[in-house]
Each structure stands twice: as structure tokens, then as C-alpha cells.
Write a structure and sequence with these properties.
The complex is a heterodimer of chains A (226) and B (460). Chain A is an alpha/beta fold. Chain A has nine helices and twelve strands. In chain A, strands 2-1-3-4-5 form a five-stranded parallel β-sheet, with helices on both faces. The longest helix of chain A has 14 residues, at 190-203. Chain A starts with a strand and ends in a 5-residue tail after the last strand. Chain B is an alpha+beta fold. A five-stranded antiparallel β-sheet of chain B has the order 2-1-5-4-3. Chain B has a five-stranded mixed β-sheet with strand order 7-9-10-12-11, covered by helices on one side. Chain B is rod-shaped. The chains are: A alpha/beta (226), B alpha+beta (460). The A-B interface holds A 82-85, 88, 102, 154, 180, 182-188, 190, 193-194, 197, 216 and B 279, 282, 289-290, 293, 296-297, 300, 305-306, 308-309, 321, 324-326, 328-329, 332, 352, 355-356, 359-360, 363, 366-367, 419-421, 424.
Chain lengths: 226, 460
Amino acid sequence: MHILVIEDDAATADYLVKGLTESGYVVDHAAEGRDGLFLALSQNYDAMIVDRMLPGLDGLSIVQTLRAQHKGTPVLILSALAQVDDRVKGLRAGGDDYLTKPYAFSELLARLEAILRRGANETVVPRLKVADLEMDLLSRTVRRAGKGIDLQPREFKLLEYLMRHAGQVVTRTMLLEGVWDYHFDPQTNVIDVHVSRLRQKIDRGFDRPLLHTVRGAGYSLRAEAS
Amino acid sequence: MRTGRLLRTSTFRRALIYMAPFGVLVVILFGFLYLGTLGLIDAQANATIDAEIRGLAEQYSSRGLSRLTEVIAERSGSKGEKGSIYLLTGPDLTPLAGNLNGWPSEAVLKDGWLSFEVERNEHGVMTSHEIRAKPFRLEGGFRLLVGHDMAERAAFQQVIAKTLALALVITIMLGVSGALYLSSKLLERVEAVAETSRTILRGDFTRRVPLAGSGDEFDHLSASLNEMLEQIEQLMTGMRAVTDSLAHDLRSPLTRLKGRIEVALRGSADAARYRETLAETIADADAILATFNALLSITEAEAGTARTSMTRLELGELARAALELYEPLAEGKGLSLRQEIEDGVAIVGHPQLLAQSVANLLDNAIKYTPAGGAVALAVRRAGERAELIVADSGPGIPAEDRERVLERFVRLDASRTSPGSGLGLSLVAAVAKLHHAELRLEDNAPGLKLTVSFDLAPPG
């Protein structure tokens, strides 16, 4: 996977390039807006990580220009602006996701993975399947190994999100945003309680757990143990 | 310089523009007066001349030439009317009687009304007089000329011209001085505002624009400006408070974080111990970030810029969503979570900040209520208000502390041991203020009952 990082702060850029390379990505880096846009237009990247405030050309303009050129490269916008209105602006400009600084690297990685698979995640499918866990989106039923599992509407939504991101790490913030549409971090980690409830319903009584906790990052729904 | 500024004011210019029609009006008025009076004077002179001609012709036809000569001599003599002109000539135009030396050349052939100039000796000075006259042919070829000295008319013309000039000068003077007065008054008021803003620019944020107390448009403007200044000062003070609190509250965890790293570096190079220290360091950093984010949310609410994303929303739906998020947490702690949510209670608000506030309230209630207790969330319409109530059966907050807990970083001694930033209620207070909502903390006997009272959204 070929990733372009447009970030002017040298320390942050080093940290990103190093972290992403260690995670198996091939990374190009541009420290300035215009250079970044040139690279983005001339090469075919799988995804881009763009800082919002850049010398030369700001991040939002880069994304807008890309979209105007019908370049659909998934873009993750990084910003120090945390307000809801700012994130709305970022997403309207054509960004696929918006991450506020400071962030945990695991969060960035999880979101990058999510936008890389966005196409697959959002296709309209009647059913989702992870190992022996099956979700029928039309009848809104869930079965594991053929046995029906009774879920509350919100638990269903939570599981749907996890199944759509199966194999990836999903952070608590992503769940809050994706399932509850809350763009803030609650004081207590309420998400953990919801996930453990869901785990009770889908994993209890089965030999192989599907819902895994990824330490320091979040959760992951996958067939094989880590 | 001041005069220059006076002349440049918009009031001055407008006053001048306003004055122009008055000048035109004065000219028109005097024009009417002038033409009307002249017409009257002329008509009067004509009538007098006609009457005299008729009288003299009658004298001639009834009493003969000698009587006519006599009458004319009498009338043009010193006893006669001063402004009257008479001349009787023979058919060859030789003067027979009258106070005119000769038949005016203009009237030799012409009949009807005529005007000519005559040099007259007045107190030893020769002056030119305008005469209006009418010739008349008597039987026997004699000619009669009766006229009137129009000196009066000329004098009147002069008076009118002078008065008109004077009136114009007075109008312009009044206009200009009025304009100067108005603009200097205006400049004075504007100067007061400008002076205040200069002082404020120099750094004195306590200064306010002085009010004249008359309640006029300038007082209105000054009052608005003062309100704005008040808001700015509050924001600045708020910012300073945030910076101070941030420095205070972030310094200790940062110091702790640094200390932890230093201790780890000084000890033996043991990978497992390093890992442990790093994990603890991340936890510390997360706590600092959480505080930081909470403060940013408060700032966002307090800055008021969030008003642009306000929208009509169902308070009940918002409350149910938050309740559903916290329901497993309450259940896990052995609390009963009750809801009394009315539908159709709409307000205009910021969905994210409100959701965060409700989440904070539920979070607090669940955190401080001991196992076996109860937490209740209610949304209801109370008259013209929409109320959101979170009540718990926890330890409550003593009456004297209820104001204080809304401040940033204030944590009561009883809660020091529980996790939290001390910013949860500050956010609720800031969001309530953003929505112009009233926040009430009451005794739930036992526990705390917290009510946020909003304006209902306008119907529609």
C-alpha cells in the first residue's frame, strides 16, 4: 500500500513515516502544500494523510483540488482544530475522515485502514459474514453457527460496524462516531461496557472468540486469534 | 485641523445639501414678490396716466386750449404732484405747456405706451429718471404727453435686490453655522467613542464609552458597544482563567510524567520495566489530553461561535440516546436507571454539545451514586420552558458548594478519589449559557437534582 503524507512539522512527519513504514506501508512525504498536491496528482496513491494547516497550500484546498480533478484517493485529514464545525468543513471539502491532533498512532492506523477499505465497507450487501457469525441486514437478524442471537437495536448497529470493519482495529472513538454519532470522548469509557455486553452475546458458549480487545488501541472482530 | 475634520463630516455635507433647496425657495419667493409688485406698480402708473389723459382731454373739449394750458401749468408747477410729467405741444411739436423740455424723440411717431430717460436736476445733481408715458392727440392737431416718473419703481427694484441678497446671505450663514454646529456636536460624540477605543487599544479593557443619558441614537450605539466590550472583557478574563487553570492543572501531571520517565532512565536498563513505565506514561498523557479536550469543548461553548451550528432538535431523542449509551454502565454498577421522557419537546440547540452535556450529567450521576441507588433522567415541558432533569440518590452537593462546582477544575473533597477532571459540570454550565438556558442545582433528598431549563423552540 502506497501512502502519501503531507505534513510540514518535521517531527510529526518523521513519526508518521516511521510508524507507517513499520506497519508495512510504503510512504512518500511532502513537507509543503504545493509539492504535496503535485505528488498526489502525478502518482497513484492508495491513500493520503494531509495536515490541514500547511505552508504553500492548505490541506483543504489540496483535497478540493484533488476532488475537482476526479481523483478519488481516500484522504485522512489531520488537524489541530477540534471543533465540530471544523470537522464538518474538512469532510465537506472531500476528506474521508478527520482526525484531531493530538491522536494516538493506533487511532491513526485504524482510521487509515478504515478509509483504505472504505469502498468495501460501504457496499450495499444483504448480509455480512465473519467466520460462523452471520448478519442479515434485511431481516435484521444475527446468527452464530446457525443459532439465533437476540440483539438490541444499538447492539445490532455496533456489531454491524464491527463486521464491516472485520479484521481491522476499530478504536473507541471510531465506535462513538460511527455507531452513536458522538464526536466527543465521554468521561468514562462507556464503550467498553457496550462491547463487553455484545461479546457476552456473540462469544459466550463458543470455543473461538471473535471479538478481541486490542490493547492500547480498541477492538477487532476477526476469526483467528491474534 | 479640527475645522478640516468638521468640514469633512457627513453631517456637514448633508446639512449643506439640505440647505440648497431653501436657497432656491428664497430666490423663488423673492422673484414672485418682485414680479408681482412691479406689475402692480406698472398697472397703477398706467391707470393714473390714463385717468389724467381722460381728464385733460375733457378739459380741452369743454373749455378749450387756454384752460388746458392753464391746468397743465398748474399741475406741473411746484404745487402739482411731484412725479407727474406733462407736455402739451402744437402740431409741429413746439412745446406749449408742461414740465418737459421737448417731445421725446422716441414718441414722435409712436402712439401707445413708451418709456424714456430724462435728465433731471435734483438738489443740484443731474440724475437720470425713467419715465413711463403715453402720448395723446387732441382735436386740432395738438399733442398731449402725460407720464410718470418711475424712480419709485427703480428704488423698489433696488430694495428687492438688496433684500434678496441679504436673505440669501442669511440663509447660507444659518445653514453653514447650523451644519457646523450639528457636525461639531456629532464629532464630539464620535470623538468620545474613538477616544475610548484608543484607550482600550492601549490595553485598558475596563474603559467604557460614556453615555450622554439622553437615550438618543448615540447612547443606543454606545450601549451596544459597551455590551460588546463587556463580552470581550469577559472572554479575555475567561481565557486568562483557562490559561491559568491549564497551567495549574496540566503542570502537575506533566511533572509526574517527566518524573516517571527520569526515574525509569536512571534505573537499570530492563526492557520489561521500560515497557511498564511507557504504558503508565501513555495513561498519564491520555489523562492530560482528556483534560485538554474537555477544556476545548468548554471554550467552544463559551466562545459562542458554536451558535452557528444550532438547529431545532428533539430534547427527548437526544436524552434517550445518551441514556441508552449509559444504561449498561448503570446496570453494571447496580443502579436503577429511570426515564420520564416526554416526546415533542423541541428546542434550538447544538446537538453535539448538548449530547456531551447530558452524557456528563449521567456520567456524574452514575459515578457518585452508590450501588443500589437510582438515577433518573426526565425531559418535560414546563409551561413555556423545556426542562431536562437528571436526579440521583447519591451524596448530593451541599447548598453552599452548588455555585462553586460549576467552576473549572473545582472538585469537592468528597470526590477527590473518584476519577474525573473537574470539568464535567463546567461544560454543562457553559453549554447552558450558550443556549441561554437556566441551570439549577437542588437537593433531591437524598442526592442531587440538576435541572437545565431551555426556551422551547418556536413552533413549526
